[in-house]
Design brief:
Number of strands: 6
CATH topology of the largest domain: Rossmann fold
Number of domains: 2
Number of helices: 11
CATH superfamily of the largest domain: Response regulator
Shape: rod-shaped
Strand content: 5-15%
Helix content: 40-55%
């Protein structure tokens, strides 16, 4: 025989409009005490819930309030961790409201015009640690999920397109020329580039002239624009990381005790 996982001893039904026969809509064999109250705001409903401490809170979503349902429900859950929530929806027009209820992770969302049919299923679902959704509401929530997945896939595809971007003539540049071009995109002048790469100013000028020739451009501005168009900024992080590693290694060698010949003594002569 099926054994319920949750026993419902009390239910708080916060009514926006009076006249709903709560005691007739809730299955009589449930044996729960029903508190049917007229509420004027969402906040007053939560205050009543904290006082009564029901096992299940049923509320009408068009009840006015200053805070969103997700804010209030999350707050209530922090105080009443075992309390369940069944939301009664009047209209399907407010998708923001449905999204907010989904964010709040209510136990069920049912339609006002189908209360007598859906509320027994919603209560039974809560007892079984399951969720019951009106079929129309379920379709809307599914569309939310599909849109989110679509946006995620588009983001992934965009990142793939960026990572596999056509590098154009950048592929013809040497590693040192790429480093120089990356420095140019950072707005560094020849002297600053020479200091950063541990080379002479004339060496930097030679590399820049080679860049101009290989990229078929006439000046620094054109070279920078071409580099940015073909993704130099995306590989610059790796370039500067290598450069920082080289600087660190150079400092270690410079600060090391002089023991004669060192395998990296010619480090600063390599262009």
């Amino acid at each position: 025989m099926f054994k319920e996982t949750k026993i419902i001893k009390s239910i708080l039904w916060g009514q926006r409009f009076s006249g709903l026969p709560a005691d007739q809509l809730i299955p009589v064999n449930l044996g729960a005490r029903i508190h049917s109250l007229r509420v004027i705001s969402r906040e007053s409903l939560i205050e009543q819930a904290l006082c009564i401490r029901p096992d299940l809170l049923i509320f009408e979503t068009d009840t006015p309030g200053e805070k969103s349902w997700s804010q209030l429900i999350n707050f209530t859950k922090s105080k009443l961790s075992d309390c369940g929530f069944i939301a009664i929806l009047n209209e399907l027009s407010s998708q923001d409201l449905i999204r907010d209820l989904a964010i709040a992770q209510v136990d069920s969302i049912i339609k006002h015009d189908r209360l007598h049919l859906e509320i027994p299923y919603a209560i039974r679902a809560f007892q079984k640690n399951e969720t019951f959704l009106n079929s129309q509401v379920a379709k809307i929530i599914c569309s939310f999920v599909q849109n989110q997945l679509s946006n995620s896939l588009n983001s992934i595809n965009n990142n793939v397109n960026i990572s596999s971007k056509d590098r154009g003539l950048l592929t013809s540049l040497t590693n040192r020329e790429l480093e120089v071009l990356a420095c140019l995109t950072q707005g560094l002048n020849y002297k600053a580039i020479a200091k950063r790469l541990f080379v002479s100013d004339s060496t930097v000028k030679t590399h820049v002239n080679n860049i101009f020739t290989k990229l078929n451009v006439n000046d620094r501005t054109q070279a920078v624009l071409y580099g940015l168009k073909h993704g130099i900024d995306q590989i610059a992080a790796d370039i500067f990381q290598r450069m920082e590693s080289a600087i660190s290694e150079s400092e270690e060698i410079y600060n090391a005790p002089n023991t004669g010949s060192h395998p990296n003594n010619n480090l600063f002569l390599q262009f």
